[in-house]
Amino acid sequence: MTLAREIAAQKAFDPFRGPPHPRQAEVRSPAEIAAYIRQHAQTLYHPAGTCSMGQVVDEHLKVYGCENLYVVDASVMPGVVRGNTNIPTLMLAERAADLLLGV
Ligand SMILES: Cc1cc2nc3c(=O)[nH]c(=O)nc-3n(C[C@H](O)[C@H](O)[C@H](O)COP(=O)(O)OP(=O)(O)OC[C@H]3O[C@@H](n4cnc5c(N)ncnc54)[C@H](O)[C@@H]3O)c2cc1C
To answer: Sorting pLDDT into bands at 50, 70 and 90, what band is 90?
Structure first.
C-alpha cells in the first residue's frame, strides 16, 4: 500500500489521479496501514492472464514458438474479465474445441 501510494504520487500520474480517498489522511503510519489492510483486504479468487493471448499464445491459443501446444483455460485471458471467470473459461474451451477441429 505504501509503495502503491508512492507510485501513484509520481508526477507522471498527475493527469490520471482522482481525488484522495476519503480515509487516506487517517491511514498514514505503518500500524494504521497494517490495520486498514487487515480490515479491508480480500481476494476475489479469479486469477487469470498468466499465459495471456498476445504474450504467450496467439489468437488460436497456440503457444508461440511451439508446435501443437495449446493453452485453454483462464490463463489465456488478456486481462481479468469484468465479471466472473467461470463461464468465460467454458466459452474459451468451446471455442478452442472448434479451433482444434478446424470448424
Ligand atoms: C473459491 C472460488 C470461488 C469461485 N467462484 C466463482 C463464481 O462464483 N463464479 C465464477 O464465474 N467463477 C468463480 N471462480 C473462478 C472459476 O472457478 C475459475 O475462473 C475457473 O475455474 C478457471 O478455470 P481454469 O480451467 O482456468 O482453472 P481450474 O478450474 O483451476 O482448472 C485447472 C485444472 O488443472 C488441474 N491441474 C493443475 N495442475 C495440473 C497438472 N500438473 N496436471 C494435470 N492437471 C493439473 C487442476 O486439478 C484443475 O482441475 C471461483 C474460484 C474460486 C477458487
So the answer is: very high
Nearest CA to ligand 1 atom 53: 45
- Span 64-86, average pLDDT: 93
Ligand 1 pocket, residues with Cβ under 6 angstroms: 45-46, 73-74, 84-87, 89
Ligand 1 centroid distance, CA of 102 (Å) = 26
3-state helix, strand, coil in the chain (%, to 5): 40, 5, 55
Q: What is the pLDDT of residues 39-62, one digit of tens each?
A: 988 877 888 999 999 999 999 999
Cα gap 80→55, rounded to integer Å? 15
Integer Cα distance of 53 and 66 in angstroms = 14
DSSP code of residue 66: -
CB 73 within 8 A of CB 100: no
Q: Rounded to the nearest 10 degrees, how much is the dihedral formed by the CA atoms of 24, 26, 30, 31?
A: -140
Give me the active site residues, please. Answer: 46
